[in-house]
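ugh ok fine here u go
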Amino acid sequence: MLLAIASPSLFVLRVSVTDDSGTERRTWSMPSAPYGSPAWQLPSIVAYLARLERTQECPSVAQFSDFLRERSARPVPPPQAPHSYDVLHDPRVSCWIDAHFEPAQGSERWPRIALAVLEQETGRCPWSRIARRRGAYSVIAHTHSEVSAELSRLADRVRGTGDPGTAEVHRMAQEVHGWTWRVARKVKAEQVLIRAGRNL
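structure:
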């Protein structure tokens, strides 16, 4: 009897940077279970944004690759394996995050970013959910929303099952949620100040 071994579903992250020298991009993948979803992987994008805002460095693909390696030992690892396939035609991909960075311009403190998050059931079917955000403030707010939804989902599972493993993942989600909330609160305060300055 022949056994059919199904390929694991994949999470894919593609990062590109456009500057005066042109556009460079790189793509990584990892199994979608257990942490290959927007709620668990978007915080890496936000953490990189926050680092660039703090250091005022220009984004680069090589720098982002180093950033992923730094985070590889964390409880929620980012993707590390290069992904050389066409994502849109790879039936294994269940989630794809595409982040495009550009350096900040003029007096801007945050780098420019355009984000697309695409999710689907694995197999030959169309993408079932697409979210697009532009600008650091919008990406941060979207990330906090995704993490909040994941935290709520895990809380329901903990109440329903009492499983210790689920409780531990829920605890990790609480930590991520607290961090994204602090970043979101910071950018909301910045937005208030910007609007106040425009009204002077």
